[in-house]
Design brief:
Layout lengths: L1 H22 L5 E3 L2 H9 L7 E5 L1 H6 L2 H4 L8 E5 L7 H10 L8 E5 L7 H5 L2 H6 L3 H16 L5 H7 L6 E6 L5 E6 L7 H4 L10 H16 L3 E5 L5 H7 L6 H10 L3 E2 L18 H19 L9
Parallel strand pairs: 1-5, 2-3, 2-4, 4-7, 7-8
Antiparallel strand pairs: 5-6
């Protein structure tokens, strides 16, 4: 009798779980499941010609699939992570993604002041997943769909769908590492007040800049073409980032001295950001096309070569 009750309890639990997944209201998440997406990125093998490195602005602004239109045949990975820092573990991970047999290896560095600060070094998504053990990472890789199916409700999206005035995030994740991001209702200055405090007691670190620039020199000596750029943001965001202590002119000078190639791609009036920092998907596609063509034109000036 007890066994029968247990069986019925387990069956009812399974039905309720399945029903909860089926009846969950839309929560703005699409594409690869969240945990599976991050686990995939930290477990990528050395299989790429072009690695796009940086924080959430790189993550949302550059679509490898779009870039391949101007760079056909190039294996491109978006290795951006929210609040990513240019510390040694991340630099090593970027380096490991390049295919040693590639004819032309390229690393693209998206520089933001936040990525050079103590805050980014202490808490970022790459660190979170990079420090997980293999067992947990492979759980997310192999059972990511199941975990995603059983995730909790996103009450903000539900309440907005019922008419409440609430700002919510929509995210779509792709297997090339890109994540499209939008927020509704659309208001590019909605995060302005919060961002104003980001650099209070959180200045850029000189030693992190030194380590990054030293790595640029090492890559250059190894035959890797290293490009740097500052992801485009509106003027009001640039003004707030002046509080960070980041000297872009001095950084660019040292970057080029180390052998890097700096690309100046400023914000355009037709670009839209979801929050003053991240391009919405439509603008990200436009920017990716421009960025890729700029890369293709510059790479065309190099003679064909093999790794040293």
């Amino acid at each position: 009798m007890l066994r029968c009750k247990t069986t019925w309890t387990l069956a009812l639990t399974a039905v309720l779980i399945a029903a909860g997944g089926l009846l969950r209201p839309p929560d703005g998440q699409s594409g690869l499941p969240v945990a599976q997406f991050w686990a995939m990125k930290v477990k990528w093998p050395a299989a790429f010609d072009v690695v796009l490195a940086g924080d959430s602005r790189t993550l949302t602004n550059l679509s490898p699939a779009t870039m391949q239109q101007a760079l056909p045949g190039r294996r491109i990975a978006n290795f951006g992570f929210p609040r990513c820092a240019w510390d040694e573990p991340y630099l090593e991970a970027v380096d490991r993604l390049l295919d040693p047999s590639a004819t032309r290896r390229v690393i693209v560095i998206g520089i933001t002041p936040l990525s050079l600060t103590p805050l980014a070094k202490e808490a970022n998504r790459f660190k979170e997943y990079g420090e997980k053990d293999n067992f947990e990472l492979y759980q997310h890789l192999w059972a990511g769909e199941a975990f995603h199916y059983l995730r909790g409700f996103a009450w903000g999206h539900l309440l907005q769908s019922l008419g409440e005035d609430r700002r919510v995030v929509f995210s779509e994740r792709f297997d090339d590492g890109w994540s499209g991001l939008t927020q509704q209702p659309y208001d590019p200055k909605a995060s302005l007040e919060d961002y104003k405090e980001t650099f209070d007691n959180n200045q850029v670190l000189a030693d992190m800049q030194d380590a990054l620039l030293q790595r640029v020199g090492t890559w250059n000596e190894a035959g890797v073409v290293v490009y740097g750029y500052r992801p485009p943001v509106p003027s009001w965001t640039l003004q707030m980032e002046e509080k960070s202590g980041f000297d872009e002119g001095a950084f660019v000078q040292r970057f080029t001295q180390a052998g890097g190639r700096w690309l100046d791609l400023p914000f355009k009036e037709n670009y839209k950001t979801s929050d003053g920092s991240h391009l919405v998907p439509e603008s990200a596609i436009t920017f990716s096309k421009l960025f890729a063509q700029t890369l293709a034109d510059d790479l065309a000036t190099f003679p064909p070569t093999h790794n040293r």
